[in-house]
UniProtKB/TrEMBL annotation:
Keywords noted in UniProt: Membrane, Nucleus, Transcription, Transcription regulation, Transmembrane, Transmembrane helix
One annotated Gene Ontology cellular component of this protein: nucleus
CDD domains noted in UniProt: fungal_TF_MHR
Organism, as annotated: Penicillium cf. griseofulvum
Main location: nucleus
rRNA-binding among keywords: no
Domain Xylanolytic transcriptional activator regulatory: 49-197
Compartment(s): Nucleus
Name of the protein this chain belongs to: Xylanolytic transcriptional activator regulatory domain-containing protein
Database matches in Pfam families: Fungal_trans
Tree of life domain: Eukaryota
GO MF annotation list: DNA binding; zinc ion binding
Amino acid sequence: MLKTDRPNLLAKLPPTEYCNQLKDLYFQSIAPVGFLTPDIIRVKSNKKKLFPILHSPTFHERYRQFSKDPDQASLAWIALLFTILGTAVLALENDSPLLKNLSRKPTPWDRVTELSERYYTAAMKCLEADRYLWRHNVSTLQALLNLIYGIHHSHGQTWTLLGLVYHLALSIGCHVDPATFSLDIVEAEERRRCWLGLITLLCNQNMAITGLDIYQSVFSSRVLPPAVVWDEDIIQG
């Protein structure tokens, strides 16, 4: 990757104030902090949401570090941030001042479409610059899962991309319980969340397309479910 590429990618982020608002909206409306079971996400509002694939305290800390020094963040993590922004846009109300401040399109629908496409495209450019097809990690997987969720809920086509992400997850061993590896508690938890989130998306979309339930055949691995605790109770060390 050329050194000049990173500034160009970072320049695609919205102003810090708006970036903060969209990031917070994502965790409040799209993937709120909650405690998890394999079949349902139980959150404080008692509503079903996007399966939370992130450990929110860890993300907020990395975002704080990123705000101080953007150059230290990996391209995969920056891609994740862009997908969070693009997905958060989908939760904005039609009369949100953010929509008018970030887009000049004439209608709320056009503004949401423009902004989500802008941030998702930037996310893919980050992943391409990072050569994600050859090297990938949990941040890569999280970014792509967020991207799939957002596109799918905007009635876009994601089946092919979902197949790619499934095989990327296999390549980094997400189908194996992380207790097998020497990982800290947060990374182990995020791997379990990513795997269950991926399988949920895969099974739901397969059911919608083919009418066949492949849950048992795909979810035959021995990965334990995510912990049934609040994010704040998962602490490194």
